[in-house]
Amino acid sequence: MGHTHTKEVVHVRSPAPPPAPPTPMFDEPWRKIDWGNKEELLKMINRYTPRHGEKHLRVLVYGPVGAGKSTFINSVTSALYERMSNEAAANTSDSATRSFTLEYETHYIFKEDSLDETYPFVFNDIMGLEGGEKQGIHPEDIKLAMKGHVRDGYKFNPMSPLSEDSKHYNPNPTIDDQVHVLVLMLSANCPEIDHSVIQKMKEVRETARDLGIPQIAMGTHVDKACPEIMKDIKNIYRSKSMKTNMEEFSKAVGVPLNCIMGVKNYSEETDNDADVDTLLLIALKHIVTNGKDFVRKQAHKKAHSLEGDMSKLNVN
Ligand SMILES: Nc1nc2c(ncn2[C@@H]2O[C@H](COP(=O)(O)OP(=O)(O)OP(=O)(O)O)[C@@H](O)[C@H]2O)c(=O)[nH]1
Ligand SMILES: [Mg+2]
Description:
Elements: H1 38-46, E1 57-62, H2 69-81, E2 105-110, E3 118-125, H3 139-147, E4 181-187, H4 195-211, E5 215-220, H5 222-225, H6 227-231, H7 240-253, E6 260-262, H8 274-315
Parallel strand pairs: 1-3, 1-4, 4-5, 5-6
Antiparallel strand pairs: 2-3
The structure holds guanosine-5'-triphosphate (GTP) and magnesium ion.
The site of magnesium ion has 6 residues, from helix 2.
C-alpha cells in the first residue's frame, strides 16, 4: 500500500481582539437618585404657580453647537407628556460644527389635552457658541436675551449683536421677558472645549452673576460618554469616568459640581424610558426651584426699595 499524502489545510484566523478593559465603576453612586420617583417629581414641578407678578419663568439654554440644547427642550417636554415631542427643531447629525438653530424662539409647553393652557415655564432656544470671533452666537446677544431685550424671530448674526434700532429689539422688557434661569449645556462626550468658547461662556456667566440670575449646567450625551451608562442609565453616578468628566467640566467653566447635572436626551427613541424621564425631571425641578427663588428675591428687593422711596416721601 502506498502512502497517500493528504494536504493539511490550515485556516488562518486573525487573532481575537483583546477584551476591552472593564470600565471603572464606584460600588455606590456618588450622587443618589431616587429612580422610579417620577410622580413625586411631577408633583413638585406642578406645585410652582407664578405669584410675584410673573406669568411664567423664562429659561434660557445656551452652550456650544450640538450640545443638545434644542433636543433638551424636546426631551423635557417628552418627559412631561410621557410621549415623544419634537417642539424645537434639532439637528439630525451629532457631529455638526455649525449651529443648526439660527433664530431666537420661545417654546411654550401646552398642558396635554388643553388648547391654550401652558406650563408656567418657557424655554428659549438660541444659536450655539462657536470658536473664533466671527462664528456662532455673539455673546452680547445672550446678554441682551438675559435682560429681555430680544424678541422672538430674531435671526442671530455672528458678526454683530442685535442693535437698538432693530424691530427685534425690545426697549422696555417686562418681568416676563427677562430670563429667570440660565442653563449651560455641554456634551459629556466632547472631551475638549475650544478656549475661545470657554471665554465666551465666562463672559455670559459673569453677566448672569451681575444680574443675579441663577445658573445651572447640564452634561448631555452621557450615554455616549461611557459604555456602562449606555447599557444602563442608572449607572450615571457610578461611572468613574463620568465623575472625572463632570469635575473637569466644573473647573473649566467655573460651575460648582453640585450645580451640574447629567441628562440623557431623547435622540433616537420612539418611547419614553422611566429612568431617562427621571433624570430629565430632576433637571427640570432644579430649573423651576431656582427660577422661583430668583423671582421671589427680585419681588422682595423691589418691595423694599419701594418702601424706602415711600418713607423718603413721608419725611419730605
Ligand atoms: N446620544 C445622544 N444624542 C444626543 C443627546 N442630546 C442631543 N443629541 C443629539 O445631538 C445632536 C445635536 O443636538 P441639538 O439639540 O440639535 O443640539 P443644539 O445644542 O441645539 O445645537 P445647535 O442648535 O446647532 O447649536 C442631535 O443629533 C441630537 O439627536 C444625548 O443626550 N444623547
Ligand atoms: Mg439647536
